[in-house]
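TL;DR need structure tokens for one chain.
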Amino acid sequence: MRRLVASLPLALLLAACSPAPTPPAPGEAQTAPANPALGSPEWLAWVDQSLAISDKGHGPDPGSPEWNQAVQRKLGEEAPQSNPGSPQWQQSVDALLRTRLPPGS
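>> reply
TL;DR here they are.
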């Protein structure tokens, strides 16, 4: 029992120093995040990759007015009619992409 208690701090230290999971490489399919906050960096990255807005880091900053307009153009006729970037617009984009993309994409 004493060994277990003595090794516990070492195990916790090793667990804390473990590398974080690596994000998908550019071009790899990214699954829809389960429940990211709309407008969060995770959500913006998913929309950006799903619609191929940025090209290897080149393009408008996610969430900027230029990026919002690029999302509108990519969605075409299905684009939400609400003000680009607004919470209502983000909710509509999210719902559209989740129904448009195949499962696991």
